[in-house]
Target: Thiamine pyrophosphate-binding protein
Amino acid sequence: MATQQMTQATSQSSDAVIEHAFGQATRWTRDYVFDILRDLGIHYIFGVPGTNEIPIIDGTSYPENEVRYIECLHENIAIGAAMGSARMTGKPGVLVVHVTPGIAHCIGNLFNAYRAHVPLVILCCQQQNELVTQEPLLASNLVDLARQYTKWAHEVRTPDEIPLVLQRAFKEAMAPPNGPVFVSIPWDFTMVAIEDEDRIKGVTRISPHFTGDDASIRQAASILSAAKNPVIVAGDAVGYADAWKELQELAELLGAPVVLQTFSSLANFPNDDYHWQGELPGSQAGVRGVFDDHDVAFLVGFGAQAQLAVYKYSDGPLFPPELKQVYLTNNTWDIAKNYYGEAAVFGDIKATLPILNGYVKPNPPVGAAARNEEMRALSVKRAADWDAYLLKAMEQEEIWSVVIAKALKEEIEERELVDNFVYVHEAVSDGAPFQYYLPFNTNGAKPVSYYCVSGGSLGWSMPASLGIKLENASSQGTGTKLVINAVGDGSSLFYPQTYWTAAHEQLPILYIITNNQEYHTLQLGLEQVVAAYGSAPGYGWKPKTDNPPYLRLERPKFDFVSLAKAFGGEHGEVVKTPAEVKAAVKRGIEHVLTHNTSFILDMRIAGSTPTAPSTSDTSSAQHAQQPAVNYVHQASIREKLHATGSGHIPSNVPSFF
Model:
């Protein structure tokens, strides 16, 4: 039973708290967030306003916090923009989301961030702690929603643990390998008054620059030196480590072609190096076509190892059993997660490769020089074939993507912006021309000059362009003066609200809609399904029609320029013929370099909705005639595709569902 003294003490304590909160408080628990952002030099919080979040958003109103709130019209735009900011700075992108629908709306890009190892801290304002058990409006178990696609997910138990939790969250997001972290905070916890001197000291930094075990490096070097025909696969960890130079040296020592992981998140190897062979194909047969002729594969930073739509055990593993595999990356999960590795090195790629190269250099594999000469010759032939393809494209009635890519390349180089541009890629079925022609090379570009995500959940690019443009420079030393976002017509329709934030924040971005008026990648995906199962015993499935209306974007047709104008994107034009492309690209780039508004180019890849599907032997001429970027393996890939009945599927187009 409470004594009179206890009651008086409680009353006095409560009065003291009220007096402090209303009369003296200048800091609240929400300000711990700003302590950390100040320490890390993070200047943006992204989000969609909700009542619960207002205490945190209000903190951006204080100039001394040096943080701007970037208002978005959908949470998946907010997280996508935070991802773009994080890619440029290498620091966690920060966003605040609203209870259950807020984190649910984020799931697509949260998945992308998790798969692409983008550092994020997601703050979700839960309903009042005293009310949650009664299941109020919008409340749920938020941690369970986020846990699958985060490095750590936690709901704060008491206001007193907020400093501990925030320090851990930011530390973990930045620790190798980077990734998203989720923190749920009951919103009433964010408004508790704290003393002025009660601050978070800082965030622990764990250096990513750790070298692998020397014995493991020597073992890897020994296997590579003994290889008869090695191949290198470069994954995203190479790009994040900014390790072009180190990997180029190894490729030269080994005489090895360099293939990138499918849906690379960055430019993981420079495309002006003759070892560069583009991305792995998006089919089981195509991947086998790459590896079948090699005895050793060096898998460096390679996490997205099975980016396929269709896989059949009966057709054999992606890596042939006789292929020796050597791994190097900073994430143990990605080392030999699918197949046995003869050697495995756990370490930072940029720090470890020079040591590995030093061990290989005195004893390079036999035939390296001859293989290098062969790849040089193939590179010259590849360039001639692509230029011939470009000339053919200029003769068409409709626009082939290669014309857009070449026009962008010329403008970037003529304006001397190779070290000051970022290309954001979601023209999913048209990746090869942009990856081949744009200057992702050693003349000034960096891995972060190219932005994509290995997750593949559509709607990543337009939101990312916001966060990228907000940052003036990247952590790798390049700038963001020119931000270009090429996006398919279907993908662009996921989050057209992006145009509003671009206009609201006066962010000049060049948006290029590759408009073929259909879900072209899904047409190609349908081809793969039919090729794999159309005549397979026990299946024999084929669609009712090979011209399904649900894969077309028609009745009514979209007016993308008008759509952008409705959200504040006031400038743009429709481009209908190849002859118009170069001048239109020039006008678009000139506009975004001299104004504070975006510019939309609706590029008609198809002049009207295709009258016949792009299936079987009727694949569109644009893709059917497109040269390979992988000239080292093109014959083997073609042979494997024909053997499985998939020979009509262009190897340059990734599978995408």
Q: What stands out?
A: Residues 30-190 form a domain with the Rossmann fold fold (CATH 3.40.50.970). The radius of gyration is 26 Å.
